[in-house]
């Protein structure tokens, strides 16, 4: 597993280490030109916290971290995203600029996400979905689009996925599930209040839960029986577009269903 994957999984990270990891993931290439002091200042942490994080993922220190990261970015040029996922377009862009940016963002998002899933997590999700009496998918806001895509594709091959598109009705749907069913919940940040409430209802009813998120240690991520991780490209809050997260979720749902 590469450095970026380890940072996203955030295994046994404390709050300071999570903050550092998320800052690095926003722009890995930029970190190569920063000093440890600059990164500490940017993340409101300390140089010692950065060193501990480096050692926690199996590296000697920040210098070794930058050398290994530079090597991985060199051999995996598709991992270096030159398009801002939050604001991918500008008013000066030509039609060619827009098509090129969308192509780069699409390729990058899928490549990054493909590095994060394991055969074990995919096998577990497929087993839960195929063996369940009923399967439901829960999403809110922009994540409803990949949820609808998945529901439509599964319907065409004879698998009916339950979902509610009426505000508030998803809570009633969640309350109708039990341990013989399966639920899929989509949340990029893993912190959506509506989805968190849904996840708690499902867990209380013993429903196996597949969570698709970019943040495994989020409130929703920690409730998952199976985690499917998307690439961390977009910010959690300030963004104009959700191209990257929707593409990543579409990809994960396609391979897990």
From TrEMBL:
InterPro entries: Homeodomain-like_sf (IPR009057), HTH_RpiR (IPR000281), RpiR-like (IPR047640), RpiR-like_SIS (IPR035472), SIS_dom (IPR001347), SIS_dom_sf (IPR046348), WH-like_DNA-bd_sf (IPR036388)
Keywords recorded for this protein, A-Z: DNA-binding, Transcription, Transcription regulation
Family matches, as SUPFAM superfamilies: Homeodomain-like, SIS domain
Domain (HTH rpiR-type) ranges: 1-76
Start and end residues of each SIS domain: 125-257
PANTHER family per UniProt: GLUCOKINASE, MURR_RPIR FAMILY TRANSCRIPTIONAL REGULATOR
UniProt-recorded name of the protein: MurR/RpiR family transcriptional regulator
Organism: Enterococcus eurekensis
């Amino acid at each position: 597993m590469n450095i970026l994957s380890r940072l996203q999984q955030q295994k046994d990270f404390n709050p300071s280490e999570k903050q550092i990891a998320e800052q690095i993931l926003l722009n890995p290439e930029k970190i190569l030109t920063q000093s440890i002091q600059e990164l500490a200042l940017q993340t409101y942490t300390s140089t010692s916290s950065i060193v501990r994080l480096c050692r926690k993922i199996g590296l000697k220190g920040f210098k070794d971290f930058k050398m290994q990261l530079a090597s991985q970015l060199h051999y995996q040029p598709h991992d270096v995203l030159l398009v801002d996922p939050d604001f991918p377009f500008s008013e000066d862009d030509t039609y060619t600029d827009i098509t090129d940016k969308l192509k780069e963002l699409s390729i990058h998002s899928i490549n990054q996400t493909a590095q994060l899933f394991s055969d074990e997590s995919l096998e577990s999700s497929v087993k839960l979905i195929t063996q369940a009496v009923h399967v439901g998918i829960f999403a809110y806001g922009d994540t409803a689009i990949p949820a609808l895509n998945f529901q439509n594709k599964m319907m065409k091959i004879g698998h009916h996925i339950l979902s509610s598109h009426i505000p508030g009705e998803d809570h009633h749907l969640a309350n109708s599930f039990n341990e013989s069913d399966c639920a899929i919940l989509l949340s990029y940040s893993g912190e959506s209040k509506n989805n968190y409430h849904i996840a708690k209802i499902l867990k209380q009813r013993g429903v196996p839960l597949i969570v698709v998120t970019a943040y495994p240690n989020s409130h929703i991520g920690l409730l998952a029986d199976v985690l499917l991780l998307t690439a961390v490209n977009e910010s959690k809050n300030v963004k104009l577009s959700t191209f990257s997260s929707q593409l990543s979720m579409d990809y994960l749902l396609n391979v897990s269903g």
